[in-house]
Amino acid sequence: MTLAHPTGSLTIERRSLYDPVADQLRDMIVRGELQGGDKIRMAELAETLGVSITPLREALKVLAEEQLIELLPNRGARVLPYTAADADQLFDVIASLEGLAAELAAERMPNNALADLETMHAEMRGQFEATAREPYFALNSAIHADIVRLSGNDVLIATHRRLMVRANRGRYMAIVDNTRWREAMDEHERLMQALSRRDAEAAGRLWRTHMRNTGAAVRLALVRAAPSEIG
Fold first, then answer.
1. What sign results for the dihedral spanned by CA atoms 188, 23, 65, 155?
2. The domains spanning 11-79 and 84-225 adopt the same CATH topology
């Protein structure tokens, strides 16, 4: 809900009580603390998160709409599996969306936005060199989100946001592999060079390739985790 100050000079964003709970659950799923097929044990999870059952139930409804969990009639809920086929389909679409976003951003973003991206990129490189995966992943996600935002295309932004809720489970898996992590860092370097040149065609091509490579790494990680998965 959004509240406006009577003078019109102040806008306050008020989140629902269950939103922070949904954020925590999403984070647990992305990082594999809750894995595909795991049953949600309501009382135990509520105690772990330090919340009551009511906001937990509401948060689970949100995650069910996002296709991260499945609500089971009279049997609680479970985390939906994330398969190689899911990764293939999601990253096919996301690669196209992010490639287009990079093209548009290269053409449209102001110089100060490019400078902000370069600062974040330098910070991310530092986390990569320190092999600090958690802060690297946070900066990486912020860079991807900013490039999409800087496309200035509201339809693209909204579509991408919906898909990334599910795809983020896979993006975190991709950087577990050190070889792929190094490749991904190199791909980010090349993208920043294209953006600094305002080379929209190169930026789009590089970013589509980057996301396809990420999707392939996610698929491989899923197949390795479940050898019977032929996706």
1. negative
2. no
**CATH for 11-79?**
1.10.10.10
Q: For residue 192, give the nearest of 174, 184, 152 by alpha carbon.
A: 184
Supply 165's token pair: 């809720």
Answer yes or no: are the C-beta atoms of 107 and 151 closer than 8 Å: no
| Beta strand residue intervals within the chain, DSSP E | 2-4, 11-13, 39-40, 69-72, 76-79
Stated pTM of the model: 0.77
Name which of 31, 21, 32, 28 is nearest 60 in CA terms.
21
Is residue 102 packed enough to be buried (19+ CB in 10 Å), middle (13-18) or exposed (0-12)? buried
- How far is it, in rounded angstroms, from Cα 33 to Cα 108? 39
For 143, the token pair is: 């860079």
Q: Which CATH number fits domain 84-225: 3.40.50.300, 3.30.413.10, 3.20.20.80, 1.20.120.530?
A: 1.20.120.530
Cβ atoms of 153 and 110 closer than 8 Å: no
pLDDT of 91-127, one tens digit each?
999 999 999 999 999 999 999 999 999 999 999 999 9
